[in-house]
Amino acid sequence: MSSHRLEGRTHGWVRERWPAIRARGFAHFLLVKGLLIWGGAMFITMVVMVTLRLGTDNPRLPMLIGLAAMLCAIGGLFWASITWWLNERIFRSLSNDKNP
Q1: Among positive and negative, which fits the CA dihedral 23, 16, 86, 45?
Q2: Is 71 domain-assigned?
Q3: Residue range of the domain that includes 50
Q4: What does the alpha-carbon distance between residue 2 and residue 27 come to, in Å, rounded to a whole number?
């Protein structure tokens, strides 16, 4: 897929969907999309992988699950922050293009 086509899709998505997401606010996006969805999905994936690898009777399993929870939460918040920032930049550039 060409970068021009991908850029058009991204701009179309931001133009159509971002205003509604943006209206809910940064904190909502951070908590729902970042912490719950992205961080939660990564946490579940990590717990399953570690449990399958080590087994449920491994004494280090609780510590590793706790570490995974912390790292996945931080990663989710970081992902949401970067995503918000990038979408805001695209949205503002599209808004400036419409209103010179």
Answers
A1: positive
A2: yes
A3: 25-95
A4: 34
